[in-house]
């Protein structure tokens, strides 16, 4: 690449000059290419360890004039090919011009200006994202692509100096983290280590320190573990690795590739060594933390945050914390947890004004809302800029008024009235609605139970659903109108579960309640078809409807499914399985003795799934469980973990005495059945499970308030950020386990229809799935949604297009045809694509491979024969049809066979055999043509026995007649692999793009469309002379000439060499291992020449 001219004082230090002219010098860096001795090894090692190769490529071009000792670096290249192109351009375009100048300074000025002009022209065509990345980072990205064979679509996120541990020996090198891969490269004293791991293969990611390994990062896959250490900042590196692994798991789960954020604002100043993708991922991480902290919608983007203080009128003090500003909200969180939190929607803001500064209150900012609340912030840095940003967002905020629509219910219960009064006092002191100050007093009131008259209002407030409903005023009504009346799989499942939703509650014992539940569930299934409907959603939604209107219940369900319980209600309940794993880990930490015993019994995984999916609503009396829902909407999933641990702790002695799973389940079931709410307003509704399991002696009742209090006392130290960290670890494990389960299901479904072994089918599925996943981020002819349909069986879910199939065919097919392989692959793809949607599934893929590997000779020949009938107008429904091969197709079949035999040990015998068979079949076709020309119906022709062949034809077949012409035609189909001259080095041969010139016939023989122009056609002479002098090059195919498959088969059976070739068994394991190694490489070589570096391409 051309680079901005830079001064070079020592031109020959660590460099070797290879070419020179009066104005330019082409140099190669020592340690690259062959030779170099100990100096080369040391330079190569320094380049890797010190990262000088990220700035200095192995080749460069210097500009020098006259006897000057000052040189200018004007170009660099990662390969000889690249630098040679620049050198040739200079010699062609500049040498003659420079010879005109008399003054050396003028020459240098001209050269520098020319190079800068070329660079400016190239920059115009570069994408804006690439322009943002600094030069050094772009060099590192190019180096990554060269070392690991990555295409341009693979974007580098960041790279770090670190050590990779091979056994107990650390290898110092560079770790490259791209969107889809983790790569490592090291070159130390002639020893090279290269490692490539796909993020989708990662099963575990840990940061730990042991006696064997210092503080390190462990990356685990299904096959092995990799350790990296000696990072400059291990925490930042590990966070980025977590993000990239999370993106990969989302890709496996949702089949969505990574999409860069096009709305990301450009940085105010250039950030050295930070790519646009790294800034994108950092911004995503901040947005996720911001949205989780304040329960905001998924489209909310944090614009910035700053330290400040907030005046709290209820405490008469300034609280230190941070202000967060986004496109729709101004939020505040105190530095001390639970001290104060505030959310101000911009739609509620009426006035933003700067107050007068003083020594007591520096840089104050006053924000007033439409409901007459005023918030005073102070100690703001760059207050003017902040006010301007808030004003910009306010101008884009639509003016909407949304009051609270919570149902108000009057109750005569004294305790309920006391709760209501406590909340009214709280509202008076801390405010009411979305702008309410949220403090530890708010949490204390929630733990005591929300009064039923306020439950709907406060659930909407604490979950963030109130904000989403306010910004989408008529969304639900429109959704119901669009969704109702449609018949889908989701609506069928909803109808089945409607009458199972809290049947013991009177609200759902009539059609009115059932109809409302139907509308909410159907509307959500229509809104989010990725989730649709999942069992347990009906139970949760029915409870929401008891305290909210339909629209409020809908938005609460949105908050639950999409924010508070992510991935809980998709088809594989991944989120619940993840939290089940988190619960097991928490049990191991908090209740180690019980954990060991429960694991032996296998109870934890059984009980916890129903607890989490329904928030205890299906396992606890309703009046008690709804109090846990109160706490959940305020505290999040943390409270569910706490209560679950408290339940296990309360039953520890009995559980430790259990001997089987059923006994433990009974103990826990009876305990939860008897968790009662003594402050309930209405008569307690008996739980169905309690009615079925109650014994003669009723167990003691447990007060739900005591259970909640105990959970906070014993396990209240749980923190949301720790839970998220544990969720990440479990998500890797759960999704990879689900992928393994899917693989086993596919193998079980197809093993009876395929001759491949189970292990072979599993490996084939892994390779097939990898190609599908790769298409999500490296581009394909169709969208990921078109290639993946979750509603289909696992066997048919993933599909690949012809390009991906061609790559797998080249790597796995036993029929290697050189450059003709791509044509054969395209034909097989068309044959396997039964529904003609340009995609094939795994079952079709295995069917094609199975025919090549495990079919008998007849089946293999049938497959090969039919692959060449794709242009025929004859219907090709099954192999059993009477299919005729025309002359053009026969020529192509002969070429394919010739190419298949080109690397076989018995190559000459096979060539002779196929030439003999082709000559015989040509004569058979001529005989068939005579019948056709006489107007008779085409008979079922058979190959003529040797004694029936006319004497003249026998002489032709053994002499210089038809056989020689067939051999000539076949020879023209051969594609010789060019070999470089003996005097050219390996390195030059690798970079040289020149190829030995092929004949016109050889180059054209790959494309069937060119047959008529450049292929010798057999038997097309005037008067039907076979192999006579009347045969001419370039004559058109004979439309009347044809043969059947039976004739081809019978003819091939006469040649033992061909019979042995097609009956030979092939082993697919070695090919699968080689294919797998293309993306997971770890090797050592003793040289770092350009030729060998290029071999790292995978």
From TrEMBL:
**Where does this chain mainly localize?**
membrane
Q: Which GO terms describe its biological process?
A: system process
Q: Amino-acid biosynthesis: present as a keyword of the record? A: no
Q: Where is the EF-hand domain?
A: 820-855
The places in or outside the cell where this protein is found are: Membrane
GO terms under cellular component = membrane
Ordered alphabetically, the record's keywords are:
GTPase activation, Membrane, Phosphoprotein, Repeat, Transmembrane, Transmembrane helix
Q: What does this protein do?
A: May act as a GTPase-activating protein for Rab family protein(s).
Name assigned to this protein:
TBC1 domain family member 9B
Q: What is the species listed in this Swiss-Prot or TrEMBL entry?
A: Pygocentrus nattereri
